């Protein structure tokens, strides 16, 4: 089975606009993680701006799909937070080539997540039940900084968790993802132990660990893809 990046991208149909479901079908080969809730989340965060039909349905034109492809590519290939991607969109809209700037994103990988939402807003946006959210918190998937407000990272995790819950998993099953992240952090601590301890080398430490974290994410994604191929080829 060919890698998604090696397949030619599906083409936009001749007619003008696409529905949200058609956009997902168009992009799912390159971005298997795309979902209705993820597209809605990106719209909610102000990164995409689809038009609306007279009946209120989202309409995506070629420029919208191109913009969405850029955003998803930045997440997949560079593991950038949405705040950084949003700042890059202005340059992208001007036609600037941003693919050569990956090495400059080390510090950005560790930027503080300043945007926060309330528990009520998170439940509204994700359609999680209160019990499901409490379980995700108890298993360490989401950690509200002060117990009542949630970062946009927490909101994004909650959205992905809801997708998995809807497919039959339970919050307790997702605990393995937190454990895997903690084990990767143990490796990162070992890698950066010397530099992190030096207050004068904080910039170097951030670049080192951010670069390593991106490599971890890339390897993890490729390993999952390999296992999926083996599953369907066996």
**Helical proportion, percent range:** 55-70%
Q: How many E strands?
A: 4
Distance between the termini: 11 Å
CATH topological fold name of the largest domain: Multidrug-efflux Transporter Regulator, Chain: A, Domain 2
Q: What order do the SSEs take from the amino end to the carboxyl end, as H and E?
A: HHEEHHEHHEHHH
Task: Supply the CATH class of the largest domain.
Answer: Mainly Alpha
Summing up helix and strand content along with how strands pair, one would put the structural category as mainly alpha
Number of self-contained structural domains? 3
The name of the CATH architecture of the largest domain is Orthogonal Bundle
Task: Explain this structure.
The strands form 2 sheets. The protein has a two-stranded antiparallel sheet with strand order 1-2. The chain has a two-stranded antiparallel ribbon with strand order 3-4. It is globular. The chain has 9 helices and 4 strands. It has helices at residues 20-27, 36-44, 62-78, 82-93, 119-126, 130-138, 152-166, 175-196, 202-233, and strands at residues 51-52, 58-59, 116-118, 149-151. The chain has 234 residues and is mainly α. The chain has 3 domains: 4-105, Orthogonal Bundle (Multidrug-efflux Transporter Regulator, Chain: A, Domain 2), CATH 1.10.1660.10; 116-173, no CATH class; 175-233.
Task: Give the secondary structure arrangement, pairings included.
Blueprint: H1 20-27, H2 36-44, E1 51-52, E2 58-59, H3 62-78, H4 82-93, E3 116-118, H5 119-126, H6 130-138, E4 149-151, H7 152-166, H8 175-196, H9 202-233
Antiparallel strand pairs: 1-2, 3-4
Helix pairs in contact: 3-4, 8-9
């Amino acid at each position: 089975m060919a890698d998604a990046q090696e397949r030619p991208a599906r083409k936009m149909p001749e007619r003008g606009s696409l529905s949200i479901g058609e956009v997902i079908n168009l992009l799912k080969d390159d971005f298997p993680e795309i979902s209705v809730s993820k597209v809605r989340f990106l719209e909610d965060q102000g990164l995409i701006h689809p038009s609306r039909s007279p009946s209120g349905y989202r309409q995506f034109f070629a420029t919208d799909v191109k913009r969405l492809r850029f955003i998803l590519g930045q997440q997949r290939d560079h593991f950038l937070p949405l705040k950084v991607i949003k700042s890059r969109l202005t340059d992208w809209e001007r036609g600037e080539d941003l693919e050569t700037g990956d090495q400059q994103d080390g510090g950005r990988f560790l930027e503080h997540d300043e945007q926060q939402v309330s528990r009520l807003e998170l439940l509204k946006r994700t359609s999680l039940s209160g019990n499901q959210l409490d379980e995700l918190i108890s298993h360490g998937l989401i950690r509200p900084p002060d117990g009542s407000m949630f970062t946009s990272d927490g909101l994004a995790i909650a959205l992905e968790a809801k997708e998995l819950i809807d497919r039959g998993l339970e919050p307790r099953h997702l605990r393995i993802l937190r454990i895997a992240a903690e084990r990767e952090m143990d490796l990162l601590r070992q890698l950066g132990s010397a530099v992190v301890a030096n207050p004068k080398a904080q910039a170097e430490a951030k670049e080192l660990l951010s670069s390593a974290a991106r490599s971890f994410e890339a390897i993890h994604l490729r390993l999952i893809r390999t296992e999926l191929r083996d599953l369907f080829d066996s």
